[in-house]
Design brief:
The protein is of the alpha+beta class. The protein has two domains: 84 residues, 2-Layer Sandwich (Double Stranded RNA Binding Domain), CATH 3.30.160; 161 residues, Beta Barrel (Porin), CATH 2.40.160.70. It contains four helices and 14 strands.
């Protein structure tokens, strides 16, 4: 019963069609006329709550009409030569106030359970790099070799190497066989061949393709030909030392393409002479070579 009484009281607090608090001379339009002008401008019925909070007092003095408007959020004072014109001005002001403070009707909303949304993270991994860390590796490499200053002309050969790495340090043992290459004199000829064994020690980090080293090689150089000196040996020891650098491009975690450049200084070398004592061929004091090959082993 108490709840029913409370609803009745609350329902009657704002009349279904409340009017302005209007106080004006009898010659002025009625309050219903003013509200009708407001609703005509709005295009719909005036909010009863706004009407209930609007007070308009009109006074006349020597043919002039003045209206004091007490609105919901402000007060205004208007003056006109006729009360009809004053009523139109009041309708304009009240309709604008009604438009600015029109209630916002929200569509029903469904409240969804909060859900944690995690943006996907795309990780781009180089397939040539190993997924795990290896402090040490053991590799086998087969390379083609080209060089100048070793055998006559541009030398060609092949190299097989076994390489071991621990952290950033590298040790390598390699065997290189150079194809015989010929040199000609006035009436003589020699074909020079070379086979060497190399030892290299250097720097090779795990996560970078670069590598660098210092090394030495020792082997046997021999020559065969025509009209060569019999007083001089046609074979002898080859010994050289130097350094180089290379790049290992990863193709898979266990396969790399390796290119390198190396410079060597000859410490011992063989000279090939003609029968008249003239030097037919001798390796240069400094030689250069380049290699390109395939290396197998975990990086």
């Amino acid at each position: 019963m108490r709840a029913l009484v409370l609803l009745v009281v609350l329902g009657s607090a704002v009349p279904a069609h409340a009017q302005f608090h209007w106080d004006a001379p009898e010659s002025c339009p009625s309050v219903s006329s003013v509200e009708a002008r407001v609703e005509q401008r709005l295009g719909h019925a005036l909010d009863p709550a706004l009407s209930a909070t609007t007070t308009i007092i009109v006074s006349a003095d020597r043919g002039h009409y003045t209206a004091q408007l007490g609105l919901a959020l402000a007060t205004r004072s208007l003056t006109a030569d006729s009360c009809e014109a004053l009523a139109d001005a009041i309708a304009i002001i009240v309709s604008r106030l009604a438009e600015d403070h029109a209630p916002v009707h929200l569509a029903p909303m469904r409240i969804l359970a909060a859900r944690s949304i995690v943006a996907p993270v795309f990780v781009h991994r180089d397939l040539g790099a190993s997924a795990t860390s290896h402090p040490w590796t053991l590799d086998v490499r087969l390379s083609g070799v080209s060089g100048i200053g070793i055998v006559p002309e541009v030398g060609l050969g092949a190299e097989v190497a076994i390489s071991a790495r621990y952290n950033v340090w590298m040790g390598e043992l390699a065997a290189t066989k150079w194809l015989a290459s010929g040199a000609d004199g006035h009436d003589s000829h020699v074909d020079v061949g070379l086979g060497v064994t190399s030892m290299r020690i250097g720097w090779r980090p795990e996560n970078h393709p670069l590598r660098a080293w210092l090394g030495a090689e020792v082997g046997s150089m021999d020559g065969t030909g025509t009209n060569l000196s019999t007083s001089q040996p046609n074979s002898g020891r080859w010994f050289a030392a130097g350094g180089g650098f290379g790049v290992g491009w990863p193709l898979t975690p266990w396969l790399r393409a390796v290119g390198s450049t190396e410079l060597l200084v000859a410490i011992e070398r063989v000279k090939f002479t003609e029968s008249n004592g003239a030097v037919l061929y001798a390796p240069s004091p400094m030689s250069a070579r380049a290699t390109f090959g395939i290396e197998i082993g975990w990086q």
